[in-house]
C-alpha cells in the first residue's frame, strides 16, 4: 500500500465480561487467550506484518509499562505509547492520535482498532483494508462490517446501503443500529443487509479532526490542547491532565460515525470477534470430540460443550454440559454458556461488596517485575517479589510496617538508610519501620525474594516514594 497507514490501537478497556481472568489491573488484551501471543501483541503484529507505519497505542498510565514490555517482546520496538490521564471513551482517544499524526501528515490514514479483538483470517483482512484505504483517501470514514454467522444480540449492527460506484467493495452506510433484542437480531440475520459493527475505522487524520470539530467541538478544543501541552515521560507521551479531563466522555460511534455524511462500510468475512464473553472464546477455541475447549490444568469426565480454563489449581469437571468454568489463583467462576454475558453483573456485585477480586489480581505487575500475596493475616503478610535484571524499586519508606526480605533466587542490592548491602541467595535483611530503603537487581537473572511485612496497617498505600526512576507519584 503506497498510502501511509498508521495503526491506532485503543487499549483502555477492562474486559469485565471475561472476569476473573480479565480485571482492571490486568485486562483481557494482555492475556494470551487464543495463541502464544496476547491480544494486544496480535493486534500490533497485524500492522507490522503488513509493513505499515509504527503504531500509536492509547492506554491509561497504569498499564504503560505492561504495554511497552509486551510490544517489545514481539519486536514492535518503535510504538508511540500515549497515556490518557483519565478515561474519556473512544472519541477523545482517537482524536488524540489524529492530532499527533496530523502534526506531520494530516493526509495519513489511521487504521483504528481495539487492542482486544481477534482476527482469524488476516489475508481477508488485508484485502478489506485495501478497499477501506482507497475510500479513506477520498475523504470517507470507513468501518468494517462483519457478515453475521449467527443470531447475535451482543453486537451493534450496520445497515449497508448502495455500493459506492467509484470504489470496489465499499458501500454507503444506511444507519447504525444499537444491540438488538433476539427477535430483531434474527430478522437482521435473515435480511442480509445488516452487518456486525466491528468498531474498526479507517480514515485520514485530517478528515477525522474536521468531523470532530463539526460534531463535537469541545473534544476538538480540549484534546487539541492536551496534545499540544503533552510532556514526555520516559518513552511515553503523557497528555495534559487538565485539558483532557474537560473533553466529553463519548464513543466514536455517537460522536462521529452515526452523524457524519462521510460514513462508508466494507463488508468482511475475516473471522472477527471482540471476544466479548467466555462463550465467544469457546466459539474461537479448538475443541475435543465432545465439544469441550480447555486451557491449563484441566481434567474432564463425561462433559460436553464446555469451556474450562485454569490458571491456578487443577480443575475437574464431570457430568455436565454447556458450562463455563474459569479458575484463577483467587477466584472461581461458573456459568451456563447461555448466561455468559451476565458475568459483568457479578463483577458489579463484587465491586459493591468492596471485593478487591473484582478489579485486581493476586499477582500485581509493576515496571520492575511483579509481586503476589502468599499469606494475609491481621498484622502480617507474606509476599513473593520478582525483580527483573537491571531494575529497581523506588526509594521509599513506610509509616506502619516493618519488612523482612529473604532472597531465594538471584542477588539483591539493598539500600537501607545510609548503607548499601549485597544480599545473596539464602540470606536475609531486616528493614525496620520508618527506614529509607530500596531494592535493586544488579544481576543478569531475575531476583526472587520472600517479603514478610508486619505492622498494624499493611495496605499498598503505605508507601512514601522519595525517588522513583519510573516517574510514579
TrEMBL record:
<dbReference type="InterPro" id="IPR001538">
    <property type="entry name" value="Man6P_isomerase-2_C"/>
</dbReference>
<keyword id="KW-0342">GTP-binding</keyword>
<dbReference type="GO" id="GO:0000271">
    <property type="term" value="P:polysaccharide biosynthetic process"/>
</dbReference>
<keyword id="KW-0413">Isomerase</keyword>
<dbReference type="InterPro" id="IPR051161">
    <property type="entry name" value="Mannose-6P_isomerase_type2"/>
</dbReference>
<dbReference type="GO" id="GO:0016853">
    <property type="term" value="F:isomerase activity"/>
</dbReference>
<keyword id="KW-0548">Nucleotidyltransferase</keyword>
<dbReference type="Pfam" id="PF22640">
    <property type="entry name" value="ManC_GMP_beta-helix"/>
</dbReference>
<dbReference type="InterPro" id="IPR011051">
    <property type="entry name" value="RmlC_Cupin_sf"/>
</dbReference>
<dbReference type="InterPro" id="IPR029044">
    <property type="entry name" value="Nucleotide-diphossugar_trans"/>
</dbReference>
<comment type="similarity">
    <text>Belongs to the mannose-6-phosphate isomerase type 2 family.</text>
</comment>
<dbReference type="InterPro" id="IPR049577">
    <property type="entry name" value="GMPP_N"/>
</dbReference>
<dbReference type="InterPro" id="IPR054566">
    <property type="entry name" value="ManC/GMP-like_b-helix"/>
</dbReference>
<dbReference type="GO" id="GO:0005525">
    <property type="term" value="F:GTP binding"/>
</dbReference>
<keyword id="KW-0808">Transferase</keyword>
<dbReference type="Pfam" id="PF01050">
    <property type="entry name" value="MannoseP_isomer"/>
</dbReference>
<dbReference type="InterPro" id="IPR014710">
    <property type="entry name" value="RmlC-like_jellyroll"/>
</dbReference>
<dbReference type="GO" id="GO:0009298">
    <property type="term" value="P:GDP-mannose biosynthetic process"/>
</dbReference>
<dbReference type="InterPro" id="IPR005835">
    <property type="entry name" value="NTP_transferase_dom"/>
</dbReference>
<feature type="domain" description="MannoseP isomerase/GMP-like beta-helix">
    <location>
        <begin position="302"/>
        <end position="350"/>
    </location>
</feature>
<dbReference type="Pfam" id="PF00483">
    <property type="entry name" value="NTP_transferase"/>
</dbReference>
<feature type="domain" description="Nucleotidyl transferase">
    <location>
        <begin position="7"/>
        <end position="289"/>
    </location>
</feature>
<keyword id="KW-0547">Nucleotide-binding</keyword>
<feature type="domain" description="Mannose-6-phosphate isomerase type II C-terminal">
    <location>
        <begin position="354"/>
        <end position="468"/>
    </location>
</feature>
<dbReference type="GO" id="GO:0004475">
    <property type="term" value="F:mannose-1-phosphate guanylyltransferase (GTP) activity"/>
</dbReference>
<dbReference type="InterPro" id="IPR006375">
    <property type="entry name" value="Man1P_GuaTrfase/Man6P_Isoase"/>
</dbReference>
<protein>
    <recommendedName>
        <fullName>mannose-1-phosphate guanylyltransferase</fullName>
        <ecNumber>2.7.7.13</ecNumber>
    </recommendedName>
</protein>
Amino acid at each position: 500500500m503506497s498510502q501511509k497507514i498508521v495503526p491506532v490501537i485503543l487499549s483502555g478497556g477492562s474486559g469485565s465480561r471475561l472476569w476473573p481472568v480479565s480485571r482492571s489491573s490486568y485486562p483481557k488484551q494482555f492475556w494470551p487467550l487464543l495463541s502464544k501471543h496476547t491480544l494486544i501483541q496480535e493486534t500490533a503484529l497485524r500492522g507490522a506484518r503488513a509493513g505499515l507505519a509504527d503504531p500509536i497505542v492509547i492506554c491509561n498510565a497504569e498499564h504503560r509499562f505492561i504495554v511497552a514490555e509486551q510490544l517489545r517482546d514481539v519486536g514492535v520496538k518503535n510504538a508511540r505509547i500515549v497515556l490518557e490521564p483519565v478515561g474519556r471513551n473512544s472519541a477523545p482517544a482517537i482524536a488524540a492520535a489524529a492530532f499527533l499524526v496530523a502534526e506531520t501528515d494530516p493526509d495519513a490514514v489511521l487504521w483504528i482498532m481495539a487492542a482486544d479483538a481477534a482476527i482469524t483470517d488476516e489475508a481477508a483482512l488485508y484485502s478489506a483494508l485495501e478497499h477501506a484505504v482507497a475510500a479513506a483517501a477520498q475523504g470517507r470514514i470507513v468501518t468494517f462490517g462483519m457478515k453475521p454467522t449467527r443470531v447475535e444480540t451482543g453486537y451493534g449492527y450496520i445497515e449497508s446501503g448502495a455500493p459506492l460506484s467509484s470504489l470496489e467493495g465499499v458501500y454507503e452506510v444506511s444507519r447504525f443500529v444499537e444491540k438488538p433484542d433476539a427477535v430483531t437480531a434474527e430478522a437482521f440475520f435473515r435480511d442480509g443487509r445488516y452487518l456486525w459493527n466491528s468498531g474498526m475505522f479507517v480514515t485520514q487524520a485530517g478528515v477525522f479532526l474536521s468531523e470532530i470539530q463539526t460534531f463535537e467541538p469541545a473534544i476538538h478544543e480540549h484534546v487539541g490542547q492536551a496534545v499540544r501541552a503533552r510532556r514526555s515521560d520516559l518513552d511515553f507521551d503523557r497528555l495534559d491532565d487538565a485539558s483532557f479531563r474537560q473533553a466529553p466522555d463519548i464513543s466514536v460511534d455517537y460522536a462521529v460515525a452515526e452523524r457524519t455524511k462521510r460514513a462508508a462500510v466494507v463488508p468482511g468475512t475475516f473471522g472477527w470477534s471482540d471476544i466479548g464473553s467466555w462463550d465467544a472464546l469457546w466459539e474461537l477455541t479448538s475443541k475435543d470430540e465432545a465439544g469441550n475447549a480447555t486451557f491449563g490444568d484441566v481434567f474432564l469426565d463425561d462433559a460436553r460443550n464446555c469451556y474450562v480454563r485454569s490458571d491456578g489449581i487443577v480443575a475437574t469437571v464431570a457430568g455436565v454440559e454447556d458450562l463455563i468454568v474459569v479458575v484463577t489463583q483467587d477466584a472461581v467462576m461458573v456459568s451456563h454458556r447461555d448466561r455468559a454475558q451476565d458475568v459483568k453483573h457479578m463483577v458489579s456485585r463484587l465491586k459493591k461488596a468492596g471485593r478487591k477480586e473484582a478489579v485486581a489480581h493476586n499477582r500485581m505487575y509493576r515496571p520492575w517485575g511483579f509481586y503476589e500475596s502468599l499469606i494475609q493475616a491481621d498484622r502480617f503478610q507474606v509476599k513473593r517479589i520478582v525483580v527483573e535484571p537491571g531494575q529497581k524499586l523506588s526509594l521509599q519508606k513506610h509509616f506502619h510496617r516493618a519488612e523482612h526480605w529473604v532472597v531465594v533466587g538471584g542477588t539483591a542490592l539493598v539500600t537501607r538508610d545510609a548503607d548499601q548491602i549485597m544480599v545473596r541467595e539464602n540470606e536475609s535483611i531486616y528493614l525496620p519501620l520508618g527506614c529509607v530503603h530500596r531494592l535493586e537487581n544488579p544481576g543478569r537473572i531475575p531476583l526472587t525474594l520472600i517479603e514478610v511485612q508486619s505492622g498494624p496497617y499493611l495496605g499498598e498505600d503505605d508507601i512514601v516514594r522519595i525517588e522513583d526512576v519510573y516517574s510514579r507519584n
